[in-house]
Amino acid sequence: MAEQDDDPLIRQLREQISDADRTIIEVINARLKLVGRLKAYKESRGMSFVDPEREEWMLNYLARANRGPLSADGLREIFGEILDLTKREVARDDAD
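Below the sequence we write its predicted structure tokens.
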């Protein structure tokens, strides 16, 4: 491990990966805040929070926008997880 830590390219790439990871967290947190606002708005008007047609539209839209290297299957998998996580987190915020 020490040998890897001394390699400047490995160190640089790891720093860039860490930066990308922090950006992912920031974007997910921003998404959660927006979804929380949407949920509150929809519920105040008696609308259902979950919209399966919108979720499917979003997955198709993102699949068309994806330029790789993330595969179409990988995109669907990760956004399926993001959608599930978002629903759980927004519901948890309601309980707090």
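The longest helix spans residues 8-44.
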